[in-house]
Amino acid sequence: MVNDMIYPDDMGGSGRYLREICQGLSSRGHVVHVMTRQWKPDQPKEERWGAVEIYRYTVDAQNIISTILSTIKNTKVLFHRLAKENKYDIINFHQPLAALGIINSKRLRNSAKVYTFHSPWHKEYEIKTESSRSLLRGWHIQVRRKIEQAVLRKCSLAIVLSQYMENQLRETHEDLPIKVEQCPGGADIHTFRPSHDRFHVRSQLNLSRDKTLLLTVRGLTPRTGVKNLIKAMEGVISKNNNIHLIIGGGGILKKELEQLVKDLRLGDYVSFAGFIPEEKLVFYYQAADYFILPTKYLEGFGLVTTEALSCGLPVLATPVGGTMEILNHFDQDLLFEGTTPEAMAALILKYAQIKDAEWDALSCRCRVFIENNYSWENSSEKTEKVFLSLIA
To answer: How far apart are CA 313 and CA 340, in angstroms?
Structure first.
């Protein structure tokens, strides 16, 4: 497995997906090695997570050129050493730059090459820098697209987590006749499970027992739509002031969003929890009445959606990306009509009024749905079948 991140080195979704798939394949009897970036100097160059072996390469991140060149050089050196000692049946790339130094290696001649397409690399950058006035922005976008395309050309198969992301792959690289398989993400159903008493969990977290509690856990960036959700709360509170929103996560918009809450006089109705570690996240899921997913762009799958549902927590979400597919499969009434604050406010107010018995029934359906469709065991099994089909 080759990626520039793995959880908990980095908190990104692809890193979390990678960790779970590695552990799942390892538990099914496969030898799994991971090459990933060393993000902090104190991270060991080599370590074992259970049966999974982790190998980290360094990156000189002073600028874009040094980042690209050092990544190519150091991944190439590390892979050359590992491939001397191991025969790899499958090489699974999860990020294009991390793959670039390896993809042409002669030691890959007898290995099947697979690319897991989490999202278009150039679009991630384009959205992240949409307010930038840099003259080099367009160059950065094109370089990322061309690197990704070069890696995909060398792979015999691409894995995607949703139909939405397969569509993104086809649109971005329309001239590549690459075979695509869907292997959706999942949830750790053993960790993320309902509580028998969510009000007791609220007491432990010092949260209100009396209010309808909304939760969102997102990177605070333009893509994730948290700004629209805060604006939606203004409309919600004007009609029902017994609702409170907790925002978990950090990011470049943190100060701007905190100021927006002040400007809209929502301080009593919206609070920021900051980064919520995974071991504590489950309790927030268990305590809330609804999880809100306000994404504007590029929701490749939505691991928080499956985790929340696994805890019996209904998810109200914008009709964007992979989450739309999950909820269409489960209950399309949970989807907002659009991404606007008005659309969010209308559905939040509707569900805030349902009776306890109706909420309990919905919560039970959430849990059963994930058990039957989106456990990591299911995801690992599907990935294993794809890999075995390439080396049969």
So the answer is: 23
CB 279 within 8 A of CB 303: no
| CATH number for the domain whose boundaries are 198-373 | 3.40.50.2000
13-186+376-391 maps to which CATH number? Answer: 3.40.50.2000
pLDDT tops 80 at residue 289: yes
Q: Where are the domains of the chain?
A: 13-186+376-391, 198-373
Rounded to whole angstroms, the Cα distance separating 49 from 76 reads 23
CB 311 within 8 A of CB 285: yes
Residue 11 has pLDDT above 80, yes or no: no
| 28 — pLDDT class (breaks 50, 70, 90) | very high
Tokens linked to 212: 């309808």
- CA–CA dist 96, 110 (Å, integer): 21
Q: Among the residues of 264-316, which ranges form H helices?
A: 278-287, 303-310
The yes-or-no answer to whether 13-186+376-391 and 198-373 have a common fold is yes
Tell me: pLDDT of 12 over 80: no
Asked whether residue 131 carries a pLDDT value surpassing 90, the answer given is no
Interval 175-210: pLDDT, tens: 888 999 999 999 999 999 999 999 999 999 999 989
pLDDT at 385: 97
Residue 152 has which token pair? 């995909």
pTM equals 0.91
- What the block records as the tokens of 238 is 């004007």
Residue with tokens 């604006």: 231
The angle that helices 321-330 and 303-310 make with each other, rounded to 10 degrees, is 30
Helices (H), 187-240: 198-204, 226-239
pLDDT higher than threshold 90 for residue 300 = no
Give the residue from 342, 344, 284 showing the smallest Cα distance to 308. 284
- Using a pLDDT cut of 70, give the percent of the chain over it: 100
Q: What is the DSSP string of 232-245?
A: HHHHHHHH--SEEE
Task: Flag whether pLDDT at 96 surpasses 80.
Answer: yes
Residue showing tokens 């978990």: 248
3-state secondary structure of 338: coil
Side chain identity at residue 153, one-letter code? R
* Residues facing residue 272 across a β-bridge: 247
Nearest to 158 by CA among 117, 186, 122: 117
